[in-house]
Write a structure and sequence with these properties.
205 residues
């Protein structure tokens, strides 16, 4: 059986996100579940309609309404119900600030986010995967030469693609903006690091 060498290849690229996502939260209270639900549905519809009317390109979608019982401070007396829901707003960065402000003006009580995305991440990862294989070949060749051998046919490649070097903020963690802060500030994402890892096994010659 021929000898083999197995090495890891890595390739990285820093990229700036070009898409952001807000979650605009709406709330309403009512004496019972039906009234709380109806009031929240009306506010949800208003926020969704306002944001949708302000854009032709963003993705705007309404989430499920959840209703919870509200209790007195002592926890012994039922005082009503509260319903909450969210409107997800996915947009390019040039329109993100405006759409967040539109949601707040239309009745959202806060914005969660934004979280950031790289729209072309899959294509970039394909390119990085190929670069990682080339890096593995360079490393394997150097190691084999040091041992007086050479590398031959590839007998196995394991794809270990992952995203690395990204802070929790860019993995989707959110920042709450309360209703008291009616002016939505500018969005300013930091660069993300995309990384591809592969493990390649070569025959030694």
């Amino acid at each position: 059986m021929n000898d083999t060498i197995t090495v890891r290849g890595t390739a990285q690229r820093r990229v700036l996100p070009d898409v952001g996502v807000w979650h605009a939260v709406v709330e309403a209270s009512g004496a019972d579940e039906r009234r709380a639900y109806a009031a929240c549905a009306a506010r949800l519809t208003a926020v969704h309609a306002a944001v949708d009317a302000a854009t032709e390109t963003a993705e705007v979608s309404a989430g499920r309404i959840q209703v919870h019982t509200e209790w007195s401070e002592s926890g012994q007396r039922r005082v009503g119900c509260r319903a909450t829901a969210t409107v997800a707003i996915r947009s390019t960065l040039d329109g993100l600030e405006m759409l967040g402000q539109q949601a707040m003006d239309a009745g959202a009580v806060r914005l969660d986010g934004p979280s950031y995305e790289v729209s072309g991440a899959l294509a970039i990862m394909d390119e990085l995967g190929a670069e990682a294989v080339l890096a593995a070949h360079v490393r394997a060749s150097a190691m084999a030469a040091a041992a007086g051998r050479g590398v031959g046919q590839v007998v196995g490649i394991v794809d270990g693609v992952q995203e690395a070097g990204v802070s929790p903020w860019h993995r989707g963690a959110v920042m709450a903006m309360r209703v008291e802060a009616m002016d939505v500030g500018p969005v300013s994402p930091e660069a993300q690091v995309l990384q591809a890892d592969v493990t390649v096994t070569y025959l030694l010659v």
